[in-house]
Specification:
Spore Coat Polysaccharide Biosynthesis Protein SpsA, Chain A, alpha/beta, 326 residues, 12 helices
């Protein structure tokens, strides 16, 4: 009798990624968006161990919604701050973040994420990020990429480079977060952190992977009045961070492809130049600013991808010296 062909071996399923995750979410007046975020996070395949939500003085239904969810979910902890009278983006958000972080012991967790309350995430979002971190020991921070929907419901990808972990979902290995000194309590905190990761030999990236795309329920930079206010803040933040003028010009030209096109790009460049003309303070870490400008000069010549790869190769020994293999 002829031998039957044996069935090919079926690979064993890979164990799901797991880890103790701390989420910290600063929020203010998020009644229009927060239920979708709360439901998306609490329904994750790898849910947070603890989720601290900092109500930064909300005057709408946000406190009532938080109380409703906290009564049903033991992982939720609510921290209430006094109303400062207005939304404070940039350093105000980070102050609220630290109000939440200070309410727990970070040593109890392996991962920490600053998460906004105006997002809709894929159901396995955190599981995928954990899997990538557990597969790459130098990966200190990562995220997916956001999109928003225009008035017609069409999906519009938001502008974010792959070397920067997006600000609305900063997912960190706790060891990396502690080594970089956490977040700077100034505008452009969400750009400085990713560059500090690379300076110390860690890697940081946002993945352009369809399975990690998430919906930003309002366009990036629009939470404080409007998008133009966000462009102005970005220009001032680039000056504070230490961005070189040539790189800033190239960045503004690139923004011509994004609404509000010419006005948005001009607003960003004008506020950078105005901060330079006034001699406003800059980030006071000289080593960081030199590192940043070296990266920017090389990126203008060789492109960001090649430049990041070269930096990661050059800083690998620095990382291994502090993190020897077991």
């Amino acid at each position: 009798m002829a031998n039957q062909a044996s069935a090919p071996d079926t690979p064993a399923p890979r164990p799901a990624a797991r880890g103790r995750i701390l989420l910290v979410s600063p929020c203010r007046n998020e009644q229009d968006y927060m239920r979708r975020t709360l439901d998306a996070v609490l329904g994750q395949t790898c849910p947070p161990t603890t989720w601290v939500i900092v109500d930064d003085g909300s005057t709408d239904a946000t406190p009532a919604i938080l109380a409703e969810y906290a009564a049903r979910h033991a992982c939720l902890r609510i921290v209430r701050r006094e109303d400062r009278g207005k939304r404070s983006v940039g350093p105000g958000v980070i102050e609220a973040f630290y109000a939440g972080l200070d309410s727990v012991d970070l040593a109890d967790y392996e991962y920490v994420c600053k998460l906004d309350l105006d997002l809709d995430l894929p159901r396995d979002y955190f599981e995928q990020l954990l899997a990538r971190m557990q597969a790459e020991s130098r990966l200190g921070s990562c995220s997916g990429k956001p999109f928003y929907r225009d008035a017609s419901g069409r999906e519009i990808a938001e502008f974010c480079d792959s070397e920067i972990v997006v600000g609305m979902t900063k997912f960190y290995r706790v060891a990396c977060f502690q080594e970089i000194g956490g977040f700077v309590r100034q505008v452009m905190w969400d750009g400085i952190d990713s560059h500090r990761c690379r300076l110390l030999g860690w890697t940081a990236r946002s993945y352009d992977d369809p399975s990690l795309r998430f919906e930003h329920l309002r366009p990036m930079g629009s939470s404080d009045a409007n998008v133009l206010r966000g462009r102005a803040r970005h220009g001032m933040g680039q000056y504070f961070m230490g961005t070189a003028p040539s790189y800033m010009l190239a960045s503004a030209l690139r923004r011509l492809t994004q609404a509000p096109y010419v006005v948005g790009a001009a607003t960003m460049l004008w506020h950078y130049l105005r901060a330079w003309w006034r001699g406003e303070p800059r980030y006071d870490d000289l080593e960081f600013r030199r590192f940043l400008r070296s990266y920017q000069r090389r990126a203008l010549v060789f492109g960001k991808r090649r430049t990041i790869a070269a930096i990661e190769q050059a800083t690998a020994a620095r990382w291994r010296a502090r993190h020897p293999e077991p």
